[in-house]
Amino acid sequence: MKNLSTAAVALALGSVVALPAAAQTLTAGFASEPSSVDPLYHNLGPNNATRKHMFEALVGEDENLGIVPMLAESWTTSDDGLTWTFKLREGVKFHDGGDFTSRDFLYTACRIPNVPNSPSSMAGFIKSAQTITAPDAMTIEVTTAAPYPLLLTDFASFGVVSASANGHDGPVEYLAEGCPGIDGYLDSNAYNDGTAAIGTGPYKFVEYVPGERIAMERFDGYWGDAPHWQSIVIRPITNDGARVAALLAGDVDVIEKPPVQDLERLRADENINVVQGASSRVIYLHFDHAGDPTPGVEGTDGKNPMQDVRVRRAISLAIDRGLIVDRIMGGLAVPARQLVPDFMRGTDPEIALETPDLDEAKRLLAEAGYPDGFKLVLGTPNDRYINDAKIAQAVAQMLTRAGIETEVDAMTASVFFSRRNNYEFSLYLAGWGASGAGMASPLRALVASQNKDKGLGGTNRGRYSNPDLDAVIEEALATVEPEAHDALLRKASRIVVDDVGILPLHFEVTPWALRAGLTMDARADQHTVLTSVRPGE
Amino acid sequence: MLAYLIRRIGQALLVMGVMATIVFFGLYTVGNPVDLLINPEDDLAAQEAAMARLGLDKPIHVQFGYFLAGLVQGDLGTSFVHNRPAIDLILSRLPATLELAFLAMALAVLIGVPLGMYAGLRPNAPASKAIMAASVVGFSTPNFWQGLMLIMLFAVFWGVLPAGGRGDTVDVLGIPLSFLTLDGLSHLILPALNLAIYKMSLVIRLARAGTAEVALQDYVKYARARGLSPVRVVGVHVLKNILIPVVTVLGLETGNVIAFAVVTETVFAWPGIGKLLIDSIGLLDRPVVVAYLMLTVFLFVMINLVVDIAYSVLDPRVRIRGGGK
User: Fold this and answer.
1) pLDDT digits (tens, 9 = 90+) for A142-178
2) A457 to chain B: which residues are within 8 Å by CB?
3) Which CATH number fits domain B96-314: 1.10.287.70, 1.10.3720.10, 3.40.50.2000, 3.40.50.720?
4) B236: DSSP letter
5) Which of A175, A320, A365, B109 qualifies as a FRET site for B184, CA 20 to 30 Å off?
């Protein structure tokens, strides 16, 4: 199907892209549809990207996920690192004309764990807060049980809703076990039909037709710079070829995730402008560190070769990341050795990229007791990340050249993630989009030992466990002072790289395609935020 | 007749039950929806909480028990993703698909039957050869390719029709319909044509074969000899006798068009139930998939029933009886 859609797009080149009838409306083609307009219902990419137009967080994240003031103008931390005080911005209005005050933030915190039937809750973003109080209408005070450096990133991750629009007019008191005086909470349908979809963002809700469009209009009472477009429409067009065709036909002005194989042609089209930017998403291989024997490995007398650091190092040396970036990703990637790109917190600039060395890889394999290599199955999704299955094929060929006869087992994402979470792969390919927390985000999720009580290792499906690393990560997660926190992250990153606990391949570069004459800011979190779309090259 | 209807509906219920059971257990073995629904940043405790919230932490037979209990009360479950009853979700998307399906079937019949009959009556005319060649292309090229070609021609090259989406709708009795507005109609044409091409090709071939056969029969010659006008001979006597195979195929195809317009709906970003199904399968949204397939089975059985009744209207020799054959 992909090849044919490419052919179709090729045919379309040279055609004239019609200008949309109403120049004041911007229409965007999204690759996936948000499951709701409710900002607190489902913590997932498309929902969070859509949320940013209508609802704002206490603090914001810029294009590179650095923290910037948003609904809070400034904030301070107490000397013991346990109390955070936020000064709210004056004069912020909700779309219904109401004033934004501390009460709304408290109500939002109350609603987060209580959104009915939420498939993926935002509760993780407030669980570090022991108390959230409002000394006055323009101040929020948050205390944590232990020093917690990632509070700002957490508070940047959810949009603030209006207490009044949710039917609560009195004062609000936040208690972690449940807020007194609030009997029930509106469900996501009240947001989808617009009644409760009242935020402070630059755009206000007009209409949500599932499967078809989300329409928004400029909010004239917005506190910040007025966005360029009078109204915006988000249309879900999940099929790659159809999305490109819609752009070429002038039905939409901007699309996200144009297929990689069409990019060269889109760039050559004078009616199309392609914008791209580095993302925080790392594509990595994870080893099965715990399985004994490990599934899919043959020729090792039942031993799990992945437990031997020499084998892991050999695999890293056998993979030519530059070649994958050039040939498979068409330049739309940056080779990686650490888990977040170097513009984010916590990367160690002294860690050099791996130089592929096939002879050394073979030598290490022989030293580890596998002079003739072994057989391996590499699991990968084939519809989740840019060119995921092709990357896995390339990796398999490179490993086979080094003596590890590797077979690729590619499958659709829904099957892959369930099998991965059942530990059915001894080596798997997946991706991780780091939050604004930088290195701390993949460290605590991907390589910290699985620990339910401490909330660590949630996606560590390789079951990597390194007590030295755990100690450093835990120390970093309890150090609020930014310099010291980042130093600990660098130290942890060094441990992971030296031990090859996980194997980063590259960071995705995210492309967007717009009609000529428009440009936008590429965000590292890959979110399509239409407020940044503006005329310009 | 009544006994016959009751038996057919009984069969439908049985098939629906079997289908629901197979799909329910089948999707369970595919994977765990929480792995897809949850944000990867969530820790293990949050993942377990999400499982519990959706009732997925219980053993499969207990979940099936809840499902059956709900079914008895007419509740097919609530979508994991959209937080709406599955049946509501499907019904809210159904008008878009029905509108598309009926327009496509109408195009297929209104264009296909006359063209096919013409080709059957004048097999050697150049126009007939062109019609037959076009029909070969029509059903031998893949549906999505036809769709993309239509988009390329009408939307990208000529810019006369939109490339996708549904356009403006008008509410009639609370149901949003797009064929009543100019903008809606312009959005409807391409996907309907895309769906219609295959059926149209099929109808052309069936009509041509039927006409070629019927036109040589004695009663047609006799009707001509009696001096009936050619319009009446073709329009009544030939037409009526070629319709049985056409109706059979159209019956089956109508079901297909409604239930599995997935490709067209995806290519044209048409917000119908086919797109809902494919998205729900991708997210393992079990209540929606199960409800959808139960509805589909019901639809197919009902369409076949209508087809059987249509036979008896078209051909007096076919009788519908309540007892055995």
Assistant:
1) 999 999 999 999 999 999 999 999 999 889 999 988 8
2) 43-44
3) 1.10.3720.10
4) I
5) B109
